[in-house]
Design brief:
The protein is built from two helices and four strands. By secondary structure, it is of the alpha+beta class. The structure holds copper (II) ion.
């Protein structure tokens, strides 16, 4: 398992947090997601043989949020 921390812009409430979390959890290989939207902080634990950094970032962008 690998851990990745991302800075995600545009999350303003718990619903945003939930949307990002669901999008990430639906990716094959993602084991856990923890989000603190006030800090714009997203931490993902994933299997690097199934998912990669780009998968994760694209899933967040598809939801309409920015990734720094
Ligand atoms: Cu929101």
């Amino acid at each position: 398992m690998e851990k990745m921390a991302l800075k995600v812009a545009g999350m303003t409430c718990g619903h945003c947090e939930e949307a990002v979390k669901n999008a990430l959890m639906s990716i094959d290989g993602v084991a856990s997601v923890s989000i603190a939207f006030l800090e714009e902080q997203v931490e993902v634990e994933y299997d690097p043989e199934k998912a990669n950094r780009n998968h994760l970032i694209n899933a967040i962008k598809d939801q309409g949020y920015g990734v720094a």
